[in-house]
Design goal:
Layout: E1 12-21, E2 25-31, H1 32-38, H2 41-45, H3 66-83, H4 92-104, H5 113-120, H6 124-134, H7 136-145, H8 149-157, H9 164-170, H10 176-189, H11 198-203, E3 205-208, E4 211-215, H12 219-237, H13 240-261, H14 273-276, H15 282-287, H16 290-301, H17 306-317, E5 322-325, H18 329-341, H19 346-349, E6 351-353, E7 373-376, E8 379-382, H20 383-386, H21 388-395, E9 404-407
Parallel strand pairs: 4-7
Antiparallel strand pairs: 1-2, 3-4, 5-9, 6-9, 7-8
The structure holds zinc ion (ZN).
Residues 69, 73, 105-106, 177, 181 line the site of zinc ion.
Length: 410
């Protein structure tokens, strides 16, 4: 089918489907192509990748997967189209493209998300685009539906699409991705920091000059969302004990890689070899998930190499590194010496981890920042100039850092 000929009528499911969800209750699937994508191997793989990496070691009920989040983002995009003003400004083809972009936006995530990316130099957004273009099943589902659909979905995800509204819906300072992960992560961690009034935000969304902007009456709901995100980062995402768990895993992968590169026999580690050799094909990437990694961690825990087995046992049994605020190089050298005296190799046992979070990006920061814009008497005014709370956050230069040094309890 050609883009110009596309209508939803042509891909409508005979029998519409619903997926029950803890956050959005019923997630509606009306179209054949969406159902095919949900049932694809690439999407099902996301059930084997946790949304929050190691956060469940602190908030033990946070075991939800990237699959549930992806369906949630699709659900919010669909709501934006059906329940806000935005739908009136999009062709049926654009509506389909952006719903698919929401559903597929995280398929490029690897196991343990950001830690794995750091160790193996992987960028999940680039992998998402590569998978849409190169995975046979996904590519043919899209192209069999509408010619050129895969490229248009990629253009939304890599932010090159000419239609600004579509990009804003998936990745901006107030997008379906952030809205879903805040509500979902908040619910599954059992904290309430991430809660905000999403239905109010959808009601005040408008379109002006080809972009999404917000009514003045929605400023409080948006402020609440920005604070929710800010608090979630410090209370949940950057929790120091989670960072400790993730440091151990990075160290474990690093030790395994170093041993492999020295020709040490690690047993049958076929799914990890492409990563150790930096020759990762899409097919290799898609075979790796957290379940397979845990199998390897068990093998490593029984390995004769003391460092590898110790790190693997620490990871499996939650024997975390302790931590303190990182102050100086002398402090680090002293800790390294103490570790060395206790037979811990500092290369694998001493780490500095810093995290920083910027609660809201405003124009002053950089030319290409796109602020949330508010309609004031027919003019568009940046949120930072309308909201005293957001203005105060920017003024106080509230971009907190949190450098910590991690090491084993001695
Ligand atoms: Zn996401």
């Amino acid at each position: 089918m050609k883009k110009e000929e596309f209508t939803f009528k042509q891909i409508e499911l005979q029998e519409k489907r619903v997926f029950r969800d803890a956050i959005h209750n019923y997630i509606h699937v009306d179209d054949h192509v969406i159902l095919q994508l949900i049932n694809s191997a690439v999407m099902q793989r996301l059930k084997r990748i946790k949304q929050l990496g190691g956060t469940h070691q602190v908030y033990q009920s946070a075991e939800h997967s990237r699959f549930t989040h992806s369906l949630g983002v699709y659900a919010i995009v669909r709501k934006m189209i059906k329940e806000s003003e935005i739908g009136h400004y999009l062709s049926e083809y654009d509506q389909l493209t952006v719903m698919i972009a929401g559903l597929l936006h995280d398929i490029g995530h690897g196991p343990f998300s950001h830690c794995f990316e750091n160790i193996f130099g992987i960028n999940h957004e680039k992998y998402t685009v590569k998978i849409i273009k190169e995975d046979k099943e996904i590519h043919s589902i899209l192209e069999n539906c509408v010619e050129g659909l895969s490229d248009d979905v990629c253009a939304i995800i890599d932010k090159t699409h000419p239609h600004q509204i579509l990009i804003q819906m998936i990745s901006s300072q107030l997008d379906s991705d952030r809205m879903d992960y805040l509500l979902r992560d908040s619910y599954f961690t059992g904290t309430t920091y991430g809660q905000f009034d999403m239905s109010r935000i959808l009601r005040v969304m408008q379109v002006r000059n080809g972009k999404i902007v917000y009514k003045k009456s929605g400023v409080q709901a948006i402020e609440n969302y920005i604070l929710a995100r800010y608090h979630m980062y410090w209370q949940v995402y950057y929790h120091p004990a989670t960072r400790s768990y993730e440091q151990i895993m990075m160290s474990l992968f690093q030790r395994a890689k170093d041993l492999y590169c020295q020709g040490y026999d690690l047993g049958d580690i076929r799914y990890l070899i492409p990563f150790f050799e930096n020759k990762v094909k899409i097919s290799d990437y898609l075979k790796l998930d957290e379940n397979i990694c845990f199998y390897y961690f068990r093998l490593f825990s029984e390995n004769a190499d003391m460092i590898l087995s110790d790190l693997a046992k620490r990871f499996l049994n939650r024997k975390l590194f302790v931590y303190e605020d990182y102050i100086s190089q002398e402090q680090k050298m002293k800790i390294e010496q103490q570790c060395f005296n206790h037979h811990y190799d500092p290369r694998y046992y001493v780490f500095i981890d810093d995290q920083m979070q910027i609660p809201y990006l405003h124009y002053g920061k950089s030319e290409d920042i796109r602020e949330i814009e508010i309609i004031m008497n027919d003019y568009l005014v940046p949120l930072s100039e309308v909201s005293e709370i957001v203005g105060a956050i920017i003024q106080s230069n509230h971009n907190k850092n949190d450098p910590k040094i991690y090491y084993p309890s001695l």
